[in-house]
Design brief:
Layout lengths: L2 H4 L5 H8 L1 H12 L2 H15 L10 H25 L14 H5 L1 H6 L2 H7 L4 H12 L4 H8 L3 H16 L9 H17 L2 H7 E10 L11 E2 L1 H13 L5 E8 L2 E8 L2 E11 L2 E8 L6 H5 L7
Parallel strand pairs: 1-6
Antiparallel strand pairs: 1-2, 3-4, 4-5, 5-6
Helix pairs in contact: 3-4, 3-5, 4-5, 5-10, 9-11, 10-11, 12-13
């Protein structure tokens, strides 16, 4: 939102926008997988909202969600070209989240790295419908207005998207406490270079995905299997010239590691846990996706 707008907090349009800002940001982020793009969408949405005659708006929250969804859809289609030219795997931009998000298991799962990657496999309209319906419980009529479809068509899209996501999402939603316990074991093995310690927490079929965006070294394709992933992790950390450390924090609603090299952020590592083992490892090293984590002081979990 513009600085000009924030100076006039008594203005009804501004007050309403600020009141719903967190919701609108989350809608945009879940649709785009990029906090930077979500902020741009909020700026565009604010400019449109500022021109609206509030007297003509029956439900201001629904109207704001509609504007944000449309702007997100426009940006999502433009991002498709960016992703097609991306070097190596594309991972969502890590998002630092507060402890209360982790306590809301459904919201934490909806922004988890694992589910965000599943959402990447949906079409833009399917993704919008899924996010609005499944995450925010928006009514079919409201969604239809946001995506320019009939309510009947939206019901079909929602059913198709839900079936697609359910077939690919983790079998169970694991609590933040369980994830943290597994991550702490991984952290000890990672920091001490203990391969057996890593193998003890990695599932046999674990998939390691790295995102360097062509700016930092990362595997150009997923690394599959505990032995391969474990050796890749320790082999990579052994190449660093400097002191490697990691802090446990909350990223995308779940415990994750912020990895540092001589005190500077090298990357963010998120995990997916099933049956007390890590089945997914997601390591974002692309500096362009770490600026938000760098600028905000991560909450270190003790």
């Amino acid at each position: 939102m513009s600085d000009h707008a924030s100076d006039h907090t008594t203005d009804p349009a501004t007050e309403t926008f600020i009141a719903h800002r967190n919701l609108l940001f989350t809608v945009a982020y879940e649709m785009l997988g990029s906090a930077a793009d979500a902020e741009d969408v909020l700026q565009e949405s604010w400019l449109r909202w500022a021109e609206v005659d509030l007297a003509q708006v029956r439900d201001q929250r629904a109207y704001l969600v509609r504007i944000t969804t449309r702007q997100s859809l426009n940006r999502l289609r433009a991002m498709k070209r960016r992703k097609e030219a991306y070097v190596g795997p594309w991972l969502p931009e890590p998002l630092l989240t507060a402890p209360d998000v982790a306590e809301d298991v459904e919201l934490a799962e909806s922004v988890s790295m694992a589910l965000m990657l599943v959402l990447e496999t949906l079409s833009p309209t399917e993704r919008a419908v899924f996010v609005l319906r499944e995450v925010f419980d928006v009514g079919y009529d409201e969604i239809a207005a946001a995506v320019d479809k009939t309510p009947a068509a939206v019901r079909q899209i929602a059913h198709r998207a839900r079936r697609h996501v359910d077939a690919r999402r983790p079998r169970e939603v694991v609590s933040a406490g369980e994830t943290r316990a597994v991550l702490e074991s991984f952290q000890r093995a990672f920091e001490t270079g203990d391969l057996q310690g890593l193998l003890d927490v990695l599932a046999p079929e674990v998939v390691l995905v790295g995102d360097g965006g062509g700016l930092k070294q990362a595997a150009l394709r997923p690394v599959i299997g505990a032995q391969k992933a474990g050796r890749f992790i320790l082999g990579g950390s052994g190449k660093f010239a400097g002191r490697l450390s990691s802090d446990l924090t909350l990223v995308n609603g779940n415990p994750a590691l912020v990895v540092r090299l001589d005190g500077e952020i090298d990357g963010v590592m998120a995990i997916r846990v099933e049956d007390a083992r890590i089945t997914g490892l997601y390591y974002v090293r692309n500096p362009e996706k770490l600026s938000r984590v760098e600028s905000e002081t991560p909450l270190t979990l003790r």
